[in-house]
Amino acid sequence: MTDVRELQEQFDAQRRAFAAEPFPSLATRRDRLARLATLTRRHRDEIARAISQDFGHRAEAESRLAEVTTVLQAVRHARRHLKRWMRPRRAAVPWRLQPGRARVHRQPLGVVGIIAPSNYPWNLAWLPAVDALAAGNRVMIKPSEHTPATSELMARLAERYFSAEELCVVLGGVETARDVSALPFDHLLFTGSARVGREVARAAAANLTPITLELGGKTPAIIGHDADLARAAERIAFGKWLNAGQTCIAADHVLIEASRLGAFIEAMRKTVGNFYPEGTASEDYSAVLGDRQRERLETMLEEARDHGCRVIALGERVELPGGAAKLPPTLVIDPNEGLTLMQEEIFGPWLPILGVRDLDAAIDHVNAGPRPLALYAFTDDARLRRQILETTHSGGVVFNDTLWHNAVPALPFGGVGESGMGAYQGEAGFLRFSLERSVFTQARRNAVSLLNPPYRRWLMRLLGL
After folding, report:
1. Are residues 237 and 280 in the same domain?
2. I need a labelling partner for 429 at 20 to 30 A (CA). Which of 177, 306, 319, 412 fits?
3. CA 179 – CA 171 distance, rounded (Å)
4. Residue 353: helix, strand or coil by DSSP?
5. Residues carrying an active site annotation
6. Helix (H) or strand (E) run with residue 452 in it
7. Do 355 and 388 reside in the same domain of the chain?
């Protein structure tokens, strides 16, 4: 565990190192990114084992797909485009100020802090680090205390591949996270719950630290009248039960015309059977992380049963060594809006399915709640797609699939309102951790001296002032 004094010393060391090299070269930045890729690629088996140890069981394919591959892809994208991102941008100059020249100079901020969550402990620590390093910053990462094996591996590998002045990983619990939040970073990125996000924002405000918050929320999936139900069920099931639903952009609930509800339930039954022929015991199905999270989910589901909801379990609970457990994919049909299931982000394998009158009713339902991190819609109707884009708000939108917008490095990833503020990934991430500095260069010969006092009224009229 890192105490306050050690944190301050590490932060000060990174601040001094940045002052000594305030604008790292393209070669230096590419080298740091290459080391991050090597760290992840060379130790991918250890990474998968550590994550599985923390969860009790994490499907190896899911760790490779969602933790390792995403980081390597982000590094490749950043190294390929970094030269263009670093290049100053020309800006148009009003005719009154010509022949002066203007440009936007992209400059590193300094020291960036990253507080990462437990659900994707490798991915959500290193993806923002890719952007921060590409932008030329020093980085301090605080991984989750709920994934100790992964966090300790991260700290050990960071020491091996980076100097502490370039990048460091600090270990500790809630108090350490609070101490990190209170450091005067040049930018702080937090991924986690809205409740903790508010605490981080309050701590950062004391130093006027700019923050990016990635908070999740109630991500809806809308199934249009023209959607192929088998295809929709397959894509929603993939996104929902990847990592047993512990994904901030997993579909939180489904909205479908009531007349198609029964057919969709059957399509979901069939899909889950195809995905996990051995049921919840399948090696490809992951455990839910932590006793408290499992208890929260079970209480939520019990409340739905007590209120008369139709609950369809598509598997059995499986106990694992060490007290871990797998909770089965479970459908909850037409739950009341007042239930905890419909008020809080589920963040687990329960999937409410609500029958609605039509697409307009589905859109009204979405707009009645907080703006989500993602919105999924299954339709090939161009008019319906346009209606969804123009009448709803969300961090991202995916048509006819789920999750995959987050795997496109060129797309910014972030929330809006209750689901977060700010976005990163690709060039958006480079800009998030950069200062876009305005630069104006006056020409040797210019006419601005004509604007000096005493002001000439005839000249003001001529210039349209």
Report:
1. yes
2. 177
3. 12
4. strand
5. 214, 248
6. none
7. yes
Q: Identify whether the C-beta of residue 410 lies closer than 8 Å to the C-beta of residue 77.
A: yes
Q: What band does 3 get if pLDDT is binned at 50, 70 and 90?
A: confident
CATH code of the domain in which 131 resides: 3.40.605.10
Residues 296 and 203 in one domain: no
On whether both 187 and 70 belong to a single domain, the answer is yes
What is the structure's pLDDT at 86? 98
Which contiguous run of DSSP H or E holds residue 123?
helix 123-134
Domain span including residue 257:
220-410
Q: Is residue 301 part of a domain?
A: yes
Which one, of 289, 242, 348, 281, lies nearest residue 53 by Cα? 289
More confident residue, 386 or 97: 386
Using pLDDT thresholds of 50, 70 and 90, give the confidence band for residue 430: very high
> Residue 294 maps to which CATH number?
3.40.309.10
Please give the single-letter amino acid code of residue 137: N
Q: Which residues of 66-91 are buried (b: 16+ CB within 10 A; e: fewer)?
A: bbbbbbbbbbebbbebbeebbeeeee
pTM as predicted: 0.95
Which residues, 6+ apart, have CB-to-CB distance to 178 below 8 Å? 199, 203
- Please indicate, yes or no, whether residues 235 and 206 belong to a single structural domain of this protein: no
Q: Is residue 302 very low, low, confident or very high in pLDDT (cuts 50, 70, 90)?
A: very high
How far is C-alpha 126 from the chain's CA centre?
A: 11
Whether the predicted pLDDT of 465 surpasses 80: no
Domain membership flag for residue 458: no
Whether residue 450 has pLDDT greater than 90: no
Total of domains in the chain:
2
Structure confidence by residue, pLDDT tens digits, 259-291: 999 999 999 999 999 999 999 999 999 999 999
Task: Tell me whether residue 386 is in a domain.
Answer: yes
Amino acid at 364: D
**If we measure between CA atoms, which residue out of 234, 159, 178, 287 comes closest to residue 403?**
234
Q: What is the pLDDT of residue 462?
A: 79
User: Which position has the token pair 């300790």?
Assistant: 152
Q: Is residue 307 part of a domain?
A: yes
The pLDDT score that the predictor gives to residue 451 is 79
The amino acid that residue 171 corresponds to is L
Residue at which a domain ends, from 389, 410, 431: 410
pLDDT number for residue 256: 98
The residue ranges of DSSP E strands in 57-110, in sequence order, are 89-91, 101-108
Quick one: pLDDT at residue 306? 97
Question: Do both 420 and 291 map to the same domain?
Answer: no
Quick one: DSSP state of residue 69?
Answer: I
